[in-house]
């Protein structure tokens, strides 16, 4: 059926034109309607789109335009007024909107343009950041290589390994063709090729150190590119004509003394080694900055690692030296100890062996003197007696001196009477002095005390030695002995500036001066006087029989008494004066510092503290037994006597407080007995004291007794006093010390 | 009382001479100290025992030296005993002789030993004589009513 073509327009002549217009308008409208739709669709898709408002405007503008065009489709034919009105409204709206849009665009387009600009800028920035990222990554990788390299280098303390590892790692990291190290020689004037990467055994090329290229490298702490034709870079044997780029860097060789805290090593080092790195020749690689930095860092690390290695070497060497010295010292010490022990053993033996025959000689000679002799024989016997007495004295002196020297000597401190001491000494020399017709005078100062505390025997020995010398060396004239209490001023000897005696409440210093008018002494000889065995050359006289030891021993005794001794003389023939000062205790004050065995005031006849004390006495010898028993009973003890070791053990009960064993008998082993007594009483909480009665004073025997568990030693033959003080000592302190 | 005084003087002189001549030493004084009221005969007892022991020892010594093969150790033991008892009593010369005797024993010198045995015997009889005299004097003093003077 035909459609209603009532609105079919009249096709004027240019109805083709009309038709085309019609079609175009239609398509335009279509497009105009679809564009906003597309816009909306795509904008909806993308979340980021500013200017929605503009979009709306634009959209509406387009829509209205489209509407206009669409409506104009109807205006080609006759149309009613409504259509015209609609058309007009649409047109008006379109006009409004398009104007508005046009106005809007004026604002918007610059913005849009700048957006584009920003976009470009951001893209550039992104590209730059990408580049930088790449750079950082390379640097980080480099850093990692360096750390790993450093770790490798520092993980060893051997210098060669350090250097070899450096070269190997560098070669690997940087993919080098060749890497070499030139070390300065001992003279410091040349560089020697010491290590290379590719060759195990470098050729040992030597290059003088003063080359300009080397100076250039050494003067800067950066890695420097050098020419591949310079002598240091010619590392391969001739044949390769082109090599890659070469870089050299200095490696400071630090000395130990350079590690100051505030100084940088650059200021101090003088020696450098040269490290040369060659890139592979067949690649077109160039040295990059980060690679150069890597090389510099490695060079520094190598320097540090080398110094550590050097320090270690040094300390190892020092340690080895010390160990050697230690071993040597130990050996020397052991040798010295052996020598000392041998010396002591020798002395101990000689002590007994020498004294026994000498005493026998003396005893026999004195016995001989009592028999009937012809005058000649008597003379001979007297000579023998004198000589042997002298010999005995000499032996005693030598042994004394040895004991003094090894420090085992102890003074025997007691109360002594000074007046008696001096008078006895005087009496001893008076006969000889009167024979020689010498005057001897003795004077005491008024403030000298009657009694003092000191070693009487040794003090007498010193006094006799001095006075004896005075008498010996004086042919005619007088000898004066004067004793006084020393005042501070008079105690100084110009030759002994270190001697500063300080008197105190408990002590005083005794000053003794012996002046003679004898042959005098050459002042130059005076220092030698106290040296043992040194005899003065100018003594000359045949009867100067000084053993040479007397003064040495006297000096030692005086020193032990915390004093000083010296001799003054104005020269030969002008007499001499011997002076000694010794420290003595003042009796009546407290004396805790003195040896504990100070004899106590004798008690009355029946000491009550020993009354009823039960003791056991073992002595094989009948007489000795009886005497000792008598002494003990006299002191109030209840004594049970036995004559054998077994009997002793049988009879001993815990009520017995002391057991006396005679140890001079060879048949009974007293040491074993002592041990068995210990055993017997090991279960009880107390055991009796064990005391040895010893015939000959024998240090070795005493030690053995003490070691066998005995508590003390009392010498035989026993005296009442000795026994009394021994018992007091024992009961009070539980130990009997040598007296 | 004059007798007492005289006797005492005699005693003092005699004992001093004994000390001077070396027959007795300080140990004898110790023995005298031990003699008191509770023990009035101490010295006599000790001295008697000394005499008895010594006689026995001398006999033993003589027989052991006369053996075919002399055991010097045994001889030394006897001498050692003798030395001990004589020193306990204060018989100084006997003790000295024993000291010398022991040396010969150590050297195993038979000749010396036998000679010294004689010497020791001699000394012993000498000191025995002296002591007996001394003790007799003491008795006389006591019987006369006096006290024995103590020598320090």
From TrEMBL, chain A:
Covalent cross-link Glycyl lysine isopeptide (Lys-Gly) (interchain with G-Cter in ubiquitin) as placed by the record, residue numbers: 716
Subunit annotation: Homodimer; disulfide-linked.
Species per Swiss-Prot/TrEMBL record: Forsythia ovata
UniProt function note: May act early in the ethylene signal transduction pathway, possibly as an ethylene receptor, or as a regulator of the pathway.
Binding-site list for ADP: 469-472, 516, 532, 547, 551
Compartment(s): Endoplasmic reticulum membrane
PTM-bearing positions, type 4-aspartylphosphate: 662
Superkingdom of origin: Eukaryota
Keywords: ATP-binding, Copper, Disulfide bond, Endoplasmic reticulum, Ethylene signaling pathway, Kinase, Membrane, Metal-binding, Nucleotide-binding, Phosphoprotein, Receptor, Transferase, Transmembrane, Transmembrane helix, Two-component regulatory system
Binding annotation for Cu cation: 65, 69
Cofactor: Cu cation
Name used for this protein in its record: Ethylene receptor
Transmembrane segments: 20-41, 53-72, 92-115
Primary localization class, coarse: endoplasmic reticulum
Pfam family, one: HATPase_c
Membrane topology: Multi-pass membrane protein
One of the GO BP terms on file: negative regulation of ethylene-activated signaling pathway
Family: Belongs to the ethylene receptor family.
Any one Gene Ontology cellular component term annotated for this protein: endoplasmic reticulum membrane
Domain Histidine kinase: 349-586
TrEMBL record, chain B:
This protein's GO CC annotations: cytosol; nucleus
Record-level Gene Ontology MF annotations: histidine phosphotransfer kinase activity; protein histidine kinase binding
Residues where Phosphohistidine is found: 80
One Gene Ontology biological process: cytokinin-activated signaling pathway
Keyword Cytoplasm part of the UniProt annotation: yes
Cytoplasm among keywords: yes
Domain notes from UniProt: Histidine-containing phosphotransfer domain (HPt) contains an active histidine that mediates the phosphotransfer.
Protein name: Histidine-containing phosphotransfer protein
Species name: Forsythia ovata
